[in-house]
C-alpha cells in the first residue's frame, strides 16, 4: 500500500481521518517527522525565535519559513478545502499546534491573516472578497495588521473615533490606530471605522479592508521597554479603500469584530500553552541549579504556576469541546487565565534569576553600565524580556477590566458598568 503524504494540500484531512483507524496518532507522527526533517539547515537557527517581545527577530527568514509551510500544505489547516484549506478536524488542529510548539518551531508571521481575518472572511465575507484575499493568506504572499485600538479607545473597542465616509465607489478614512502589531511589514489592515456620523459606542461601526501601501497611510513604530518595535501607530489621512472592501453591512462592524475575536482564542492557544510549559520547565530547572528552589516561597510559586497551567489547559479543552454557556464569556475567561498566568511567570523568572535579572548581559562591556531606563542601550536576556513584555499581556487583546466586565454583563447578567 502506498503511504499517504499528509502534507499534500489536495488531501482532505477530515475525510482521511474519518476513514483511517488511529488517525490521530498517524497525523501526530507525520507532523513531528515533517518538522524534524524541515527545521534544518537555514531554518534550524529559527528555533524558538520570534515570540512575544521578539517578533523582530529573523523576520525575513521566518516569512520564508511560513511560505515553506504553505508550499508543503501546513497552513490554514482548519479552513474548508474550497477556500484553500485542509478541512482538518479540531483534534488534528490541536495536534498540529502542539507538535509545532514542542518542536520549538519559530513564531508564525501570518497569524493575523490565517487565524483571524481568514476565518472571519469565510464566515462574513462576500465571495469576491474570499476569492481576492484568501489565496494570499494561504500561500503567505500578503500579510495583515489589525486596526482596532486607538489612543482614546484601547481595550474599549466601542469607543473608536477613526471615521470613514463613502465617496462614490471609495471609502475615505481619517483617524489614528495604535498598538498595531506588524503594520510596518503588512500590506493590508482590517480596520474598525465609524461610518455613521453622530453614532456612538458599538453602533455605526464598519469593518474595512484597507491597503497600507498608499500615500494616505503613515506607519510609525513604537519603541517598547524591551527595545523592540513590533507595535506601531498608524495614521490615516484621507486614506482610501474600495467601496466593496467592507466585511458585513455598513454599521455592522461591531458584530464582525466580535466574531473575529472569538477566532483569536481558538485552538492555537493550546500550542501557546506548550510554549508556556517549556518556559516553566526551564525556570524550574534554573531554580534547581542555582538553589532558588530551596526557598519555600519560590517552590510554592512554581507549584502554583504548574497548577495554573493545568487549569488553563483544562479550560481550553472544555471550551473547545463546546462545553460553554457563552462564547464571549469563555474567551474572556481564557484571556484572563493565560494573561495573568504569563505575567506572573515573568515575575517568577526574575525572582529565580535573582540579582542577575537587574542588569543586562553587556553590563560590563567596555566598562559601560547597562542602562535599563534606556531601551536603545539595553541588551536583554530572555527572562528580562519575558518580565517586561508580559506587562502587556493583561492589556492587549482586551484588558483584565474589560474581560471581567464581559463576564459580569454577558454571562452573569449583572448590571452594566456606568459609562460616561
What are its keywords?
single chain, 3 domains, Butyryl-CoA Dehydrogenase, subunit A, domain 2, alpha+beta, Butyryl-CoA Dehydrogenase, subunit A, domain 3, Butyryl-Coa Dehydrogenase, subunit A, domain 1, 43% helix
At a glance:
The protein has 420 residues and is an alpha+beta fold. Helices cover 43% and strands 12% of the residues.
Write the layout of secondary structure elements.
Elements: H1 13-18, H2 23-38, H3 59-71, H4 90-102, H5 111-124, H6 127-138, E1 144-147, E2 163-167, E3 170-177, E4 188-194, E5 205-211, E6 217-221, E7 232-242, E8 246-247, H7 253-264, H8 268-290, H9 296-320, H10 327-353, H11 382-389, H12 400-411
Helix pairs in contact: 2-4, 4-8, 5-6, 5-7, 8-9, 8-10, 9-10, 10-11, 10-12
Cofactor: FAD
GO cellular component, one term: plasma membrane
Keywords: FAD, Flavoprotein, Oxidoreductase
Mean pLDDT: 84
- The helix/strand order is HHHHHHEEEEEEEEHHHHHH
Our measurement of the CA-to-CA distance between the termini, rounded to an integer number of angstroms, reads: 69 Å
Largest sheet, described in full? 4 strands, mixed
Contiguous low-pLDDT stretches (5 residues minimum) are 363-377
CATH architecture field of the largest domain: Up-down Bundle
> Structurally, how many domains make up the residues?
3
Strand order of the largest sheet: 1-4-5-8
- Gross geometry: globular
Output the CATH class name of the largest domain: Mainly Alpha
Number of helices: 12
| Superfamily (CATH H level) name of the largest domain | Butyryl-CoA Dehydrogenase, subunit A, domain 3
The level of helicity is 40-55%
Task: Note the beta-strand portion.
Answer: 5-15%
What is the number of beta strands?
Answer: 8
Keywords: FAD, Flavoprotein, Oxidoreductase
GO molecular function, one term: flavin adenine dinucleotide binding
Pfam family, one: Acyl-CoA_dh_N
Family: Belongs to the acyl-CoA dehydrogenase family.
